[in-house]
Amino acid sequence: MTRVNGNFSIIGKPTAMVDAAEKTTGAGKYTDDFSVPGMLVGKILHSPYPHARIKRIDTSRAEKLEGVVAVAIGEDAPNPYGILPVGHDEHALALDKVRYVGDNVACVVAVSEAIAEKALELIDVEYEVLPAYFDPEESMKAETDLIHENKPHNLEKDYHHAFGDPEKGFAEADHIAEARFVSNEVTHAAMEPHSTLASFELDPHTGELGRLTVWSSTQVPYYLQHKLSLVLEMPMQQIRVIKPLVGGGFGGKSEVIPLEIIAAIAARTAKAPVKITYTREEVFWAHRGRPRTIIDLKTGVTNDGRITAVKARVVQDGGAYCSYGVVTILYSGALLGALYDIPNIQYDGYRVLTNKPACGAMRGHGTVNVRFAFESQLDELAAKIGIDSAELRQRNLLQPPCITVNGLRVQSYGLPECIEKTVERSGWKQRKGKLPKGRGLGIACSHYVSGAANSIIRSDMPHSTVNIKIDRDGGVVVYTGASEIGQGSDTMTAQIAAETLGCSLSRVRVIAADTDLTPIDIGSYSSRVTFMAGNATLRAADEVKKRIAAAAGKKMGCAAEDLIFRNDRVFSKNSTGSLSADALADKSVRPTQAEASVSGRVEGQILRGSLQQKRKEEGPKESMTFEEAVVAAIDFHGALTGTGSYAPPQDARGGKHKGAGVGPSPAYSYSAQVAEVSVDEDTGEVTVHKVWAAHDCGRALNPVSVEGQIIGSVWMGMGQALTEEMVWKDGMLMNPGLLEYRSPSSVESPAVEPIIVESVDPEGPFGAKECSEGSLAATIPAIANAIYDAVGVRLHECPFTPERVLAALRAKKNAKALNLTEGVDPTAPVSFREHGGALWFKGKGPERHAMDPARREAPAAGGAD
Amino acid sequence: MSLPQFRLLRPRTLGEALDFLGKYSGHESAHTLPAQTSRGPDGRGRPSPHEHSRGRLSPQVPIQVIAGGTDLIPSMRQKLFEPEYVLDLRGIDEMRGIRPAADGGVAIGALTTLRAIETSAFLQQHYPVLTEAAATVASPVLRNMGTIGGNICLDTRCLWYNQSLTWRKGCGFCIKKDGDLCHVAPGGTKCWATFSGDTPPALLCLNAEIEIAGPSGARRIALHEFYTGLGDNYRKLQPNELVTRVFLPAALADYRGVYRKLRVRGSIDYPLAGVAVVVKRSNEHIDDARVGITAVNPAPVLVKGVREMVAGKALDETLAEAVGDLAAKTAKPLTTSALTPEYRREMIRVFTKRAVLAANN
Closest chain A residue to B183 measured between Cα atoms? Predict the structure, then answer.
């Protein structure tokens, strides 16, 4: 590995996360751990129908239940919102329509969860059931009963891009592969379910509501502040959002989730603090995961393995609301580029609305499913033209620095090395094709943005700002809006500040993601934090460092530019004493007893005066401790603070075509992976034995954290490849829990060998790029390609469940087909709403019990109880 | 999802437990009780609001038995059970333990944990099929809690049943709970919820008997008589009765045994199909063999005709395959869980063949 050995004391060293102790001991506080005096519990009533008009809501019976304080409904906060400016189509609580099973109808505020749950059963809602759409391709044909009136054919958005000359490209190709790939719906399954606590200040005299404080498990506290302001019609300055520890996000908390708004509405209605924590089922309904994606892909190559053109038609089953949908469908097309050199690209993307929970951003946002299709097809073509599949990829590399045909600027590019390393470590050349029957190797590559170059709300505002203040005793406090969600954002911030200031990590305290205290940062999504908030931290620390250097230089009688800050000391680079050699050596230099006491405490008093006295007497020194330098700087400048911000450069912000804003990034990460699998040919079960995963993260600021991210990405990708799938029956999610959703357990987790590749990006902080998303997408096709190598079947639909693999194996052998759809009874209706369901669906059928919605004769269902 | 309110009863002896059951299991006696579980914020106490809203309440047993709790607690959160009383058996030491009998058989207390069974040297030596099956149940943490009695009495499972109250409202409920339709066998009036215990097929292979204690004393029945084959009313156990012990006969000790389980993940999951096989060999041929299957019917089932098919023959691929076909014919999987019924039945065939071959070697 080309670890460019910059001479660092903190960067590049395996570093424990700054919040590791509180998390591992259980002392750390997540949102659900918080409570405030007088806090009540909120519970949400969800729609039992996939698509219905709300004709009437009667909450009176629920309100009468003792222990119930308030019931909030849609009319209490009718303003629509959405994460994208073009997608303000959500109401925290439904106004007129519900659009999926699980949509939010009302919220009960009560003194306990049990009472709130009871009260939910007492809310009478009269629905007019509407025909619902579950399949995106069917939904696109809809003429009536649209999911949103302003979206004809239930089409959220479609894009049609052509770069280069695709027709000509295909004409030049010697081989063309064309196939349909399907990638089923998956969700984040973060450990921590969403939770929000909302509390208004109450004027003790008038009872009027004042400022609002919200604690929430969010990746985007500033967007939350903005949307709360929109829905509650309060100025942003009246709203304080605090992000406590977050137990994983993966994109599922990267936009405003209904409970965050509902908690605030409920707190306003109840005039009391309200906390809502989702059940796991509600997390599945809130969703915002990766949409089921249908990809019709066509790729052309020449005999010598050059890709001449790619054409992709992508249909995404986006669910009932826009969410990040427009961005997802654009990423799917835009990131066909920037991995390989593809001269001609045609892309037709359709984001379709259906009556299911909204899909949104999920680790590898928009790229993963298309990457699965593309890398699988590339493998097919390699077999067709008889070129080794690793070699084929090496023949299509970009030549950076360059701008791709679709306007993406690529500077650092570690892909060649990633391929080289994985091929070498996995023994690809010696072992590929030579493993025993049923065992195989597969390779695939992927990439991802290091932060979107354009923010959701387009403006020239910096994407990240960081403030630093240093106190007289050398304590460094960094204020950043960046959201630590378990990915190591706070540790990264502390590391960059400490490295730049040359102080030890333990001096640095990070205050993060509190809208009252920290400067704005647009959030933890699109893998932007290290690159953008990291650069802002670097700039803020540099600014402070300059001020310290100016003062220290005076004291030391040398130019500020000649000073080196390192290991809690400041010294001149011209000094030759043993001290500087000592300090440069990578061991922490502790202040001597004498030095410590001079600035230390005596009987609780900080003896600044005597310290200064001493310094004056001594005259110029060869070096100073960090503390001494800080004191000098504060004496010289007054307060010691610095600020830095980051906005992506103009030339990295992409082309001019419609939709060009999504895809551009100041830098791209690269990944190559080899997977080794075996397939049981009688059962179709796939076992992943090992994955070699190389990832170009620019520079590994914290190698142990980078390795963790690579392993986590591979593991999550493996889940999507083999087991995870949201199963639907007519809008009912059949597996809304971790038992039936089946993320891989530790038993199935293969050995993962993470390989760090450092291409040192010219614009990243210390050369760093992203490391947490780019690797995921390669895992799925790497496994698919390995299955092909093992047993010769090409799988076009993921996850590769044993039944799908077995069906493919049987088809190949011409054995008796395995009916995968319904089995046993061929006359069984395809949808449950067609038998029992359909009977109540259409308002007829056998006698139903009272809670069966079909039995609710409209006027009789009143609250006369 | 909150746990419904209930009153916990903690007997110290079996007799005390049976007294509690006798007292609280009948509807009449339950209503005359002074103890109101609900601290009634509505001031109205019972009946619960659900009784108003859910028109046709499935007969609610006012008392539920808890041992390990791994089956009951999640179901209570989903409001599948809302008992007034929960009888906690864990304090009854006499119901725990593996006791080899003088004649060579063994008696296992119903409260014995699956972990204890999995690691028992005696059982590993003489009844390997049982320890192998016990070792596949859920995950190590759950096996520390879950008991053999609980695994035998395990509630049948279905994707349309093991869901929250809110979810079940969305599908209009089903026969097993609060409804009158079956979503997996449309038009049918039978419940097809699947029995998903891992140890019962092994116990069936071993000719196990169970002891049931009730108000009129204890009785002993063959395990296969315990299950009804219906998804909803799946076991023959009165609300005032308890399964107290499992007996394995000496005659089947030292049979070779193998358990094979189909599941998506290597841990945690319930079986999607399970096959237990015991084989007795003499010289080069098979003397006796039995095959039990689980997770593909509303009850664990002993496959009929296996012994007749293989007794006196030397086992080879073809014969093992024939046994597999026989087992697959017995399996009647429906869409009650993940993976398609056809696939699961096919796996009964494959797993039976493999298990028979493995047990023979």
Answer: A832
